[in-house]
Amino acid sequence: MSPIPLSLEYLVRPSTIESGKKPAIFMFHGYGSNEEDLFSFASELPEELLVISARAPYNLDPFGYAWYAINFDATHGKWNDAEQASESREKIVGFIDEAINAYDLDPENITLLGFSQGSILSYAVALSYPEKVKNVIALSGYIDENILKEGYMNNDFSDLHIYASHGQVDQVIPLEWAQRTPDFLKNLGVDHIYKEFPIGHGVSQQNFYSFHKWLVEHL
């Protein structure tokens, strides 16, 4: 299936549903990766899902892509470009709307799956626009309040479901950052589950089976 040209580059796996609106899962890769990374999960995901794996908009030298810059300097240490991240949040929202129209998707059954930086953006999209997202699978990421839309805490989260997981020996994003997630979501009244696995910054087979089971139950 050749992708229909949209505002972001992406890979697509068709749904087995031939008539009517289709549920979909949108994948967002991590810093320095590309759309092929998470797309490796596609063949294992429920066949009724249309699978879209997006490429982040910013080129990294010499290869790979990013949703926003991560800067390193003596003054600030490692810090994120929150303005660029917020712009990517809006790009993703627009891209999802485009895909819904292009592929006749069910706007009430949209899942976001993100890894690392893609997970951070998935949280940002879902918490800023919960009416657009049913499920989030957030792998090895955390919630960055600096890139949530102003007034997000007043949103209706009653139809949003989040699966979050993190590696217990993650050396890229500290475990304690992810461990703040359950309380943050609980305070917003978001239905969620949080799991940890004995791995670093990645997705183990056990982690995959865990979120796959959760996804099947929430479609």
Summed up, what is this model?
The protein has 219 residues and is an alpha/beta fold. The protein has helices at 36-39, 82-103, 117-128, 175-179, 181-188, 205-218, and strands spanning 10-13, 22-28, 50-54, 58-59, 65-66, 70-73, 77-80, 105-115, 135-139, 161-167, 191-197.
Overview of the structural elements:
- With 219 residues, the protein is of the alpha/beta class.
- The chain has one domain: Rossmann fold (3-Layer(aba) Sandwich), CATH 3.40.50.
- It is built from six helices and eleven strands.
- The strands form three sheets. Strands 1-3-2-8-9-10-11 form a seven-stranded mixed beta sheet, sandwiched between helices.
- A hairpin with a 3-residue loop joins β6 and β7.
- The longest helix has 22 residues, at 82-103.
> Helix and strand string, N-terminal first?
EEHEEEEEHEHEEHHEH
Radius of gyration: 16 Å
CATH class category label: Alpha Beta
Which regions have little confidence, pLDDT < 50, spanning 5+ residues?
none
Secondary-structure-based class equals alpha/beta
| Distance N to C terminus | 23 Å
